[in-house]
Amino acid sequence: MPRQRKFFAGGNWKMNGNKKGIDDIIHFLNADCVDPNVEVVVAPPAVYLEYVRQKLNPQIGVAGQNCYKVASGAFTGDISADMIKDVSCNWVILGHSERRNVFGESDKLIGEKVKYALSVGLNVLPCIGEKLEEREAGKTEEVVFRQMQAIIDNISPNEWNRVVIAYEPVWAIGTGKNATPEQAQEVHKGLRNWLSKKVSSEVAEKVRILYGGSVTAANCNDLAAKPDIDGFLVGGASLKKDFITIVKSGSK
Ligand SMILES: O=C(CO)COP(=O)(O)O
């Protein structure tokens, strides 16, 4: 069956890499990750955004991993959506679980960041996901719907075509323990139903929902086969050639 939505493969490099390592990644991305059926976007650390943008095939997108909620000012250590745009990058990841849980970002702040990044014209990749204790307490939907509410409140109807959602259960990130295809499908379907009620059936049908959390070359095909999994946000495996297999899983 053809896919309803264009497959999306995101590589979140997190705080990894140096110029030499990045050159190696760019080499295999340009050689093997350009696929008409798959939208590929990589997110290098902020200091390398421009370097990567200049060397990467223009068909591959480049994302910031985070940005603040205003254009400029006294916010030492941060970058703005305007700066990401200024170095010709079109995407930004917002509300990643490491921003939420290591750096203490709130739903409210993430919502404000989504609003601002969209207002300057970036495409945004807001992330949501429950912790292990929340899943075990049966609170997965309660948590992801709460996180999503703070996001959807900040998206205008005409901006939804610049939004791709990433569901990343915290317990699956960097642990080697991925959600099973069935677990991920269940949450993605629940999110789509919820979006249909809270936003519109059109948005629910069109918006891509990515899965993230220990995606590898070994498990990507089974995950990609699920109808509501429209792609991946990949951490560790996006630094390796395994990413090629992951990209291609969307082209089957
Ligand atoms: O956080 C992630 C992507 O944003 C997932 O990380 P891993 O693929 O390393 O588990």
TrEMBL record:
Q: Which GO terms describe its cellular component?
A: cytosol
What are the GO MF terms of this UniProt record? triose-phosphate isomerase activity
The catalytic activity, as recorded, is: D-glyceraldehyde 3-phosphate = dihydroxyacetone phosphate
Q: Which Pfam families has this protein been placed in?
A: TIM (PF00121)
Which pathway is this protein assigned to?
Carbohydrate biosynthesis; gluconeogenesis; Carbohydrate degradation; glycolysis; D-glyceraldehyde 3-phosphate from glycerone phosphate: step 1/1
The EC designation for this entry is: 5.3.1.1
| Listed GO biological process terms | gluconeogenesis; glyceraldehyde-3-phosphate biosynthetic process; glycerol catabolic process; glycolytic process
User: Domain of life, per the record?
Assistant: Eukaryota
Tell me which UniProt keywords the record has, alphabetically: Gluconeogenesis, Glycolysis, Isomerase
UniProt entry tagged with the keyword Isomerase: yes
Q: What SUPFAM superfamilies is this protein classified in?
A: Triosephosphate isomerase (TIM)
What InterPro entries would the database entry show? Answer: Aldolase_TIM, TIM_sf, TrioseP_Isoase_bac/euk, Triosephosphate_isomerase, Triosephosphate_isomerase_AS
Q: Which PANTHER family match?
A: TRIOSEPHOSPHATE ISOMERASE
Family according to the record: Belongs to the triosephosphate isomerase family.
Q: How does it assemble?
A: Homodimer.
The identity of this protein, by name, is: Triosephosphate isomerase
- State the organism of origin: Potamilus streckersoni
